[in-house]
Amino acid sequence: xxxxxxxxxxxxxxxxxxxxxxxxxxxxxxxxxxxxxxxxxxxxxxxxxxxxxxxxxxxxxxxxxxxxxxxxxxxxxxxxxxxxxxxxxxxxxxxxxxxxxxxxxxxxxxxxxxxxxxxxxxxxxxxxxxxxxxxxxxxxxxxxxxxxxxxxxxxxxxxxxxxxxxxxxxxxxxxxxxxxxxxxxxxxxxxxxxxxxxxxxxxxxxxxxxxxxxxxxxxxxxxxxxxxxxxxxx
Amino acid sequence: xxxxxxxxxxxxxxxxxxxxxxxxxxxxxxxxxxxxxxxxxxxxxxxxxxxxxxxxxxxxxxxxxxxxxxxxxxxxxxxxxxxxxxxxxxxxxxxxxxxxxxxxxxxxxxxxxxxxxxxxxxxxxxxxxxxxxxxxxxxxxxxxxxxxxxxxxxxxxxxxxxxxxxxxxxxxxxxxxxxxxxxxxxxxxxxxxxxxxxxxxxxxxxxxxxxxxxxxxxxxxxxxxxxxxxxxxx
DNA sequence: GAAAAAACCTGCGAAAATGCAGGTTTGATT
DNA sequence: AATCAAACCTGCATTTTCGCAGGTTTTTTC
Lengths: 234, 234
Prior knowledge:
homodimer
């Protein structure tokens, strides 16, 4: 709750709240929201926990991940500052997935009642939300197809493209703006950490990617996109 | 447009329109909606076509399918009477998937403007829609995990469970209430038609399923659920 | 900065899934 | 009822993916 940032001060212009709520309702959310810092690796919520409200990422990055099965997890989404978190649970009482901070992150939390009231009273807020869901649904269903049809090479290329789109890269060093372990990348791609290493070798030989210690350096994003070129990327 | 069924006569009590719109707005939709029969195999919409409105299935069954790639498609959803169709395109101008009638089907079509107005003026309608999206998103993301982690046996079992949940079975004959080709099942499961045949052999030997010509007979649904038991089904 | 722990790399055999080809059954048409 | 086309079944070789095990590098801890 310390270092409190009001919605008016907040620089995330794409945040749903700033996009859809105005005047009285922006004030209400701004004064009634809770803020909390999570350290890298902290769980923001876990599957099965009760849902008291909804989160917005003020700073940082988060992975949404299924519970482990046969030793494997699946990363369902990467989210960064300005994005909403926990929206899958709307209308439900318990979370279905886990959310883990990928770096130190500051989250804004709005309780259910206030959120529902804002939906009812700010049509633009509700509408943006519906559009957002439609877009997320489309992307998730595309990913079903990717997992079903892509080979490992394509899946790994897609995992890097996805990470790049989610977090971007440092324009000078061309390094991915987040630290992902081989296992994290495997959990995005839907394969094993060993396969990620093997594909990294290939991509390095093809001058698509370089490695510096554990960091990924993007040499040729277009080249990666060409690998998955037959599939729709949006 | 012939055989017109008004919303008041309609027996699909779970339809979003009947659940969320009342009085004046139910009348407006009822009188302004279009109805159209599609024959088995007809395309209801195709990827890339402009979106003029949204569909509700009055009778019949539909598959939503990605465009073919390397000779493979992916069935993204099965939908039957009472369900909404085309909601992925909200806020967009062109469809992202194809919808094909699996049997002769009657669809109700509501144009964009009327639909948007109803959203704005019937809060329950908009709210139900948001909850529906949240639920669909959750299910789609679970399917990403299934495609990434399940083996063929589990995927095929899941495809039968999904078909059963989507369309049900005849209580006397225990036959699936829809005719799906091996290729259709493969496109749900995310594998090839040959694998479906092979798994059908196994399931038949295990007395989980029987075959009558090309129809599937469910002998032991619990047994199928046990195969995917480690995975969350919801 | 040394020691310990964690993450990463790589070769290889095993397992799983695929794709083809040829034969069989089913359903539609006349 | 005969014919034809489509859908289905099945064996087998090939390809792809996996998972272990042991060694190496990087990061963390004290």
